[in-house]
Design brief:
heterodimer; A: mainly beta; 7-stranded mixed β-sheet; 4-stranded antiparallel β-sheet; 0% helix; 49% strand; B: 6-stranded mixed β-sheet; 55% strand; globular
Chain lengths: 113, 113
């Protein structure tokens, strides 16, 4: 009963380094999302994928890229990390993009120094 | 990993009492509303949702009330337990656009023994 699984849980990066956050869901959901959560702010959408093969920018896409590898997996890449990208990242999925429950992963704590 | 939830409003409730957490939403066109619970170090967890054609919806120990006139949403938790300690936040969206969900900043619920 895994749901949404994301790795790594914690990561420290130096400014300019790159890394990829991995996410997989086992609920056969069509839509997947990447959010970031910062102190005192609500979750903000970085990128989403309405279905396999499609990706779209969300509210805060700058500095990130995504890949919807297949229906199960949706990765988030930081090509050149910046301190402003220090945050908690959540992957999520839903059955479709129309009024369905969104299920979240456990989060990835990223610190850029 | 405790970097989320700083400077949030806090509601302190005696164990066994009922809790009422309030949320004001922003878009009068929003027609789908969700409450999430987020425990320390974990991802948001779906609690209950309500569509705009309803004023009230009940789940197990939780009730959501929707007042569209004043754009207000509330979550009532009956017989609050220690395990209810968490940050609770509401979200609003248009039912056909899960990529346009707006998440609130949240309220921390603290249970007094």
């Amino acid at each position: 009963n895994a749901g949404v699984t994301q790795t790594p849980k914690f990561q420290v990066l130096k400014t300019g380094q790159s890394m990829t956050l991995q996410c997989a869901q086992d609920m056969n959901h069509n839509s997947m999302y990447w959010y970031r959560q910062d102190p005192g702010m609500g979750l903000r959408l970085i990128y989403y994928s309405a279905s396999e093969g499609t990706t779209d920018k969300g509210e805060v896409p700058n500095g990130y890229n995504v890949s919807r590898l297949n229906k199960r997996e949706f990765s988030l890449r930081l090509e050149s990390a910046a301190p402003s990208q220090t945050s908690v990242y959540f992957c999520a999925s839903s059955r479709s993009r129309s009024g369905n429950t969104i299920y979240f992963g456990e989060g990835s704590w990223l610190t850029v120094v | 990993g405790e970097s989320v939830g700083l400077h949030l409003p806090t509601l302190s409730v005696q164990e066994g009492d009922n809790s009422i957490i309030n949320c004001a939403y922003s878009n009068s066109a929003s027609d789908y509303f969700i409450w999430y619970k987020q425990e320390s170090g974990k991802g948001p967890q779906f609690i209950i949702d309500i569509r705009s054609n309803m004023d009230k919806r009940q789940g197990q120990r939780v009730t959501v009330l929707l007042n569209k006139t004043v754009k207000h949403l509330s979550l009532q938790i009956a017989a609050t337990q220690p395990g209810d300690s968490a940050v609770y936040f509401c979200a609003e969206s248009l039912m056909n656009r899960d990529d346009k969900i707006i998440f609130g900043k949240g309220t921390r619920l603290h249970i007094l023994p």
